[in-house]
Amino acid sequence: MGGYLVVGVHSDAEILKNKGPTVMNQKERYDAVAACKWVDEVVPDAPYLTSLEWMDRYKCDVCVHGDDITTMADGTDCYQIVKDAGRYWECKRTQGVSTTELVGRMLLLTNEHLRKTSASVSSPFLPTSLKIVQFSNGREPKPTDRVVYVDGAFDLFHVGHIEFLRRAKEQGDYLLVGIHDDDVVNQTMGSAYPIMNLHERALSVLQCKYVDEIIMGAPYSVTKDVLNKVCKISVVCHEKDTLYEMDVDGSDPYKKRMQLPKELGIYREIEGTEDEISTETIIDRIFANRKLYEARNRRKLEKAALEEKMLLQQQQQLKF
């Protein structure tokens, strides 16, 4: 649609006023958007109502949004001003992918008993080969590249994952990421994980600017095939003190998982940061504020019905 992408990210206060409580705070959301490979510039504290003055300040020709209506707290269209000025473009939304959908899945995990049940990830998102291609870099490593391999679940992709991938990429030139399938994640992490299915997690990882390629359904233990068949791996990185409940066969998860890279002398540990969040942190936030998020989702569904009605009215007006 253009040659330079500026993304405005709303503050926590703006979102609370017009939509409801956030799952990630504004700093986490700023960092997450900045790590997206298609984003050129992030504008923090963007107003919920997009004005022509705001667009001109950042030299933006058009404002792009999905093919749904987003409303303010008072029910008015957030983008009506730029629509009236002819500076608004729409792109088709990816069905089944939204914060509301993911919060809804987490809200189904009502207590510790339910969090220990086996995972059955149900998602309205329908993956296609075209979608994978659109997200892929399509670049193979050069013969001189130092290839780094990491693997994991990467569930509810967040800034903790991003920081780990950034540090892993610093170990070489080309980053290959193995993503475990849903059954492996459930067997090793338990607690009704994963929240997101394999395809959703794969696309989340692929959009990160530090990632060059992925292996979908990568084996839990690093094997000779992993180290040699996709490309020649020079370094295998793992985050220090990352814990899993058990291996896929019920044994100690670290006895054989990284055994081969250690024997070959290519294993490296990445230090975490004190303020780093985790998938568990995000779920705990939802549980700690369960009533707030249930109310948020109810309001969002009611608001979505109103926005759908407004969209139909606009479409009917265009016909005449």
Word description of this protein:
The protein has 14 helices and 9 strands. It has helices spanning 12-18, 26-34, 52-57, 80-84, 99-107, 129-135, 159-169, 182-189, 198-206, 224-228, 253-256, 259-264, 279-288, 290-319; strands at residues 6-9, 41-44, 63-66, 88-91, 147-152, 174-179, 213-216, 235-239, 267-270. It has a 5-stranded parallel β-sheet. β5, α7 (159-169) and β6 (174-179) form a beta-alpha-beta unit. α5 packs antiparallel against α14. The radius of gyration is 21 Å and the shape is globular. The two termini are 28 Å apart. 25% of the residues are buried.
What's the number of helices?
Answer: 14
Summarize the biggest pleated sheet.
5 strands, parallel
Mean pLDDT: 84
Tally of strands = 9
- SSE arrangement, N to C: EHHEHEHEHHEHEHHEHEHHEHH
Tell me the overall shape: globular
Range of helix content: 25-40%
What gyration radius follows from the Cα positions, in whole Å? 21 Å
